[in-house]
C-alpha cells in the first residue's frame, strides 16, 4: 500500500490537486515545485523536513518562527478536529490521525499535515483512497478552504455559494415567525433559503464549524437532502461539550427547544421508522438506518443523560425506542407531551411552543421521566 501511495504522490495529478489548496502567493511555486514533490511521498511514511538541495540536505526550521501565527493556525485546526501534537513545527511534514475517516480499520496516521515555513498557512490531505479530505487555512481572517478528494481524482468544496443558498427573505422569516421561532435563532443556526426558489428552506448541517451537508424543506413539508455527505445529527456542534443532551425528530423542533432555552439539542436527519424492529441490533457497519448515530458516536459517548423528545405518534415512539436501544436505556429520559383536548395530545416540541409557549415547553423537558418509567 505504501509503495502505491509513494508512486501515486509523484504523479503530475498530485501537483494539480494540491495547487488548488494553495493561495496565490509566492509560496505556491516553492511548496509544489517538481524538485520538492518527493517530500510528499516521504511524508506518508514519517514526518520529515524540506530538502533544500538535490543532495538531500535538510532545511533547518527557524526557531524564531512567528509563534502567534502558529497558535492561530493550531486553533483553527482544532475547530476542524485536527489535533496537532507538540512536535508539529513549521517547515516539516507530519502524519496525524484524520478526523474524518479515523484512519480506517487499520487506524493509520493517514493525514499528511504541513505548516509552511513562514507560518502564513497550513495545509493537509488524507491519503486514504476512501477519504481524501484536504484543505488549507491561513494565519489571517481568510475563510477555511476544505474539500474532499474521492479516489484521488475529484476535488469538491462545500460552501453556501456553491449550494445556491442565501439569507432568509421576509416570506420564510414570517413562516418561522408563525411557529414562534425568532430571527435570532434562525441566524445562529445558519438557516438559509435557495436563491433560485425562495420558498425552499435550507437547514445547513455543520460540524466543527464547517458546512458538511444540507437538508431542504418546502413550506408544504416536502423534504430532500443533498447527495454525497455522511449523515450526522443536526446541530452536532451544540453538544460537543454537553453532558446532557436532547434529541428531537426534526430541525424545527430543535429550533423550538432553543426558543425554550435549550441549545444542547440535536435532531435526527431522517424520518422515524414505522415500527420497532423485532430483530437484534445489527453490527455498527450494517446499521445503515442509524448511521448518523455512529458518525456522531464521540459526541454521544460524552453524554450522561439523554432526553428523547421525539414525536408523539407511533413512528416517533418507535424512533425513541430504537434510539434508546442503541444509546442505552439507562441514560435515556423521555419527554411526555401533554393532552391537547379530550381526544388528542400535542404532537411535538413546536406544537407545544406554538400553543402553550416557551415556558411550558421548558417545564416539559425539565420534567422528563426515566425512559424505563415512560413506557
Description:
- This is Toprim domain-containing protein.
- It holds the Pfam family Toprim_4.
- GO terms for molecular function: 5'-3' DNA helicase activity; DNA helicase activity; single-stranded DNA binding.
- The chain has 375 residues and is α+β, with helices and mostly antiparallel strands.
- It folds into 3 domains: 2-157, no CATH class; 158-229, Single Sheet (N-terminal domain of TfIIb), CATH 2.20.25; 237-375, Dna Topoisomerase Vi A Subunit, Chain: A, domain 2 (3-Layer(aba) Sandwich), CATH 3.40.1360.
- The chain is built from 13 helices and 17 strands.
- The protein has helices at 2-9, 12-19, 26-31, 37-43, 67-79, 170-177, 183-188, 251-259, 291-295, 297-300, 314-327, 349-356, 358-366, and strands spanning 48-49, 92-96, 111-115, 121-126, 133-138, 145-150, 154-157, 165-166, 191-194, 197-207, 210-218, 223-225, 244-248, 265-267, 305-309, 332-334, 369-370.
- The strands form 3 sheets. The chain has a 7-stranded antiparallel beta sheet, sandwiched between helices.
- The longest helix is centred in the last third of the chain and has 14 residues, at 314-327.
- It is globular, with a radius of gyration of 24 Å.
- The termini are far apart.
- The model is unreliable at 1-64 and 142-157 (pLDDT under 50).
Amino acid at each position: 500500500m505504501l509503495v502505491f501511495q509513494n508512486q501515486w504522490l509523484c504523479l503530475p495529478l498530485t501537483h494539480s490537486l494540491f495547487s488548488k489548496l494553495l493561495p496565490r502567493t509566492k509560496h505556491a511555486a516553492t511548496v509544489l515545485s517538481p524538485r520538492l514533490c518527493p517530500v510528499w511521498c516521504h511524508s506518508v511514511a514519517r514526518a520529515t523536513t524540506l530538502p533544500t538541495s538535490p543532495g538531500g540536505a535538510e532545511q533547518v526550521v527557524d526557531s524564531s518562527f512567528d509563534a502567534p501565527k502558529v497558535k492561530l493556525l493550531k486553533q483553527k485546526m482544532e475547530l476542524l478536529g485536527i489535533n496537532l501534537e507538540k512536535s508539529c513545527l513549521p517547515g516539516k511534514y507530519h502524519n496525524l490521525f484524520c478526523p474524518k475517516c479515523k484512519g480506517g480499520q487499520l487506524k493509520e496516521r493517514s493525514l499528511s499535515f504541513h505548516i509552511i515555513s513562514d507560518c502564513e498557512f497550513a495545509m493537509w490531505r488524507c491519503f486514504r483512497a476512501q477519504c481524501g479530505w484536504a484543505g488549507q487555512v491561513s494565519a489571517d481572517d481568510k475563510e477555511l478552504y476544505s474539500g474532499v478528494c474521492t479516489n484521488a481524482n475529484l476535488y469538491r468544496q462545500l460552501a453556501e455559494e456553491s449550494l445556491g443558498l442565501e439569507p432568509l427573505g421576509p416570506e420564510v422569516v414570517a413562516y418561522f415567525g408563525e411557529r414562534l421561532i425568532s430571527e435570532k435563532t434562525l441566524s445562529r443556526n445558519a438557516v438559509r433559503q435557495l436563491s433560485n426558489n425562495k420558498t425552499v428552506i435550507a437547514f445547513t448541517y455543520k460540524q466543527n464549524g464547517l458546512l458538511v451537508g444540507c437538508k431542504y424543506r418546502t413550506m408544504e413539508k416536502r423534504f430532500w437532502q443533498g447527495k454525497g455527505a455522511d449523515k450526522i445529527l443536526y446541530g452536532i456542534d451544540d453538544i460537543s461539550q454537553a453532558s446532557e443532551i436532547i434529541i428531537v425528530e426534526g430541525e424545527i423542533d430543535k429550533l423550538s427547544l432553543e426558543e425554550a432555552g435549550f441549545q444542547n439539542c440535536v435532531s435526527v436527519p431522517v424520518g422515524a421508522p414505522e415500527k420497532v424492529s423485532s430483530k437484534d441490533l445489527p453490527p455498527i457497519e450494517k446499521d445503515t438506518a442509524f448511521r448518523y448515530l455512529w458518525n456522531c458516536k464521540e459526541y454521544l459517548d460524552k453524554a450522561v443523560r439523554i432526553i428523547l423528545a421525539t414525536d408523539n405518534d407511533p413512528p416517533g415512539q418507535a424512533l425513541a425506542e430504537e434510539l434508546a436501544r442503541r444509546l442505552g436505556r439507562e441514560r435515556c429520559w423521555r419527554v411526555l407531551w401533554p393532552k391537547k383536548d379530550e381526544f388528542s395530545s400535542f404532537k411535538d416540541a413546536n406544537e407545544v411552543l406554538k400553543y402553550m409557549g416557551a415556558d411550558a415547553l421548558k417545564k416539559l423537558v425539565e420534567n422528563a421521566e426515566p425512559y424505563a418509567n415512560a413506557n
